[in-house]
């Protein structure tokens, strides 16, 4: 028995002796924006062996969203590195014995379930041949949309709704958390933001939302009847194709 255990231990040691540490930098970058980092909770990264699904490395991207001038305002020539030592990323360190085809999966932003996008790619890792610098960059399209008013399952008295209408308010940012405002780098004037309103399961209209302050979009809807209501707020930029959605249900009572 002891001999068998010893042989097994020697076998495992011999296998590990041939494995080579290999590093892979993985980054998530919002479409038409910057890198997904600590300020929005990061992107979750999984590196798998495509042959058997084994997870070789897993973790979240951490760091800053990157250099705005370099990423958003400068022309990029071939081999231009967009990241620096502070830019958000996840350094996967794996031990492999031979060239291995891996799948890199990213869930981003990891803490925003209604906005979370999964992106993936595959590549060969060669033992000891690190992929650093910008590394592998996965693009994350969309907007993070959070409806602030009305609240989920809020009961609202019909008589309490002002003549100007029931306030609708949403907070919208890029997928990296970058700010949206009129005439800004991420210009709200290029976006269409509307609330689709349903009552008792039937669509009854749309409300245009405007952007009076950074990241905030507001509007108001006329309400004349009690019922079960649902609001779906969407954001759409036809120039980039970015989209985002959030939904909320509430009750208007007599």
Strand arrangement, largest sheet? Answer: 9-16-15-11-12
CATH uppermost class of the largest domain:
Mainly Beta
Q: Tell me the major beta sheet.
A: 5 strands, mixed
What is the distance, rounded to the nearest whole angstrom, between the alpha carbons of the first and last residues? 79 Å
CATH topology of the largest domain, anyone?
Immunoglobulin-like
Order of helices and strands: HEEEHEEEEEEEEEEEEE
Q: Helical region count?
A: 2
Overall number of strands: 16
Helical fraction equals: under 10%
Secondary-structure map:
Elements: H1 2-18, E1 20-30, E2 44-49, E3 55-60, H2 68-73, E4 90-96, E5 100-108, E6 117-125, E7 131-140, E8 143-149, E9 155-157, E10 166-174, E11 192-199, E12 202-208, E13 210-213, E14 216-221, E15 227-236, E16 243-253
Q: Which descriptors apply to this entry?
A:
Immunoglobulin-like, mainly beta, 254 residues, single chain, four-stranded antiparallel β-sheet, five-stranded mixed β-sheet
Question: What features would you describe in this structure?
Answer:
The structure is a single chain. The chain is mostly beta strands and 254 residues long. It folds into 2 domains: 18-140, Sandwich (Immunoglobulin-like), CATH 2.60.40; 143-253, Sandwich (Immunoglobulin-like). Helices cover 9% and strands 48% of the residues. It has 2 helices and 16 strands. The protein has helices at residues 2-18, 68-73, and strands at 20-30, 44-49, 55-60, 90-96, 100-108, 117-125, 131-140, 143-149, 155-157, 166-174, 192-199, 202-208, 210-213, 216-221, 227-236, 243-253. The model has no long low-confidence stretch (mean pLDDT 94).
């Amino acid at each position: 028995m002891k001999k068998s255990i010893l042989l097994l231990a020697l076998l495992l040691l011999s296998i590990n002796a041939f494995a080579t540490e290999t590093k892979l930098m993985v980054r998530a970058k919002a479409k038409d924006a910057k890198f997904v980092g600590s300020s929005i909770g990061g992107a979750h990264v999984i590196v798998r062996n495509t042959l058997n699904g084994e997870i070789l490395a897993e973790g979240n991207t951490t760091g800053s969203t990157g250099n705005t001038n370099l990423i958003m305002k400068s022309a990029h020539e071939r081999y231009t590195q967009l990241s620096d030592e502070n830019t958000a990323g996840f350094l996967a360190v794996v031990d492999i014995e031979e060239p291995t085809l891996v799948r890199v999966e990213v869930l981003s932003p990891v803490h925003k379930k209604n906005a979370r996008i999964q992106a993936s790619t595959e590549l060969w890792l060669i033992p000891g041949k690190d992929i650093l610098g910008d590394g592998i960059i996965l693009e994350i399209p969309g907007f993070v949309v959070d409806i602030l008013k009305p609240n989920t399952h809020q009961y609202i008295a019909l008589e309490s709704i002002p003549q100007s209408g029931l306030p609708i308010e949403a907070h919208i940012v890029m997928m990296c958390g970058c700010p949206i405002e009129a005439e800004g780098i991420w210009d709200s004037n290029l976006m269409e933001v509307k609330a689709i309103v349903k009552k008792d399961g039937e669509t009854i209209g749309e409300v245009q939302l405007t952007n009076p302050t950074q990241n905030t979009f507001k509007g108001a809807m006329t309400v004349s009847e009690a019922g079960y209501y649902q609001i779906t707020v969407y954001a759409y930029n036809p120039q980039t194709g970015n989209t985002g959605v959030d939904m909320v249900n509430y009750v208007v009572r007599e």
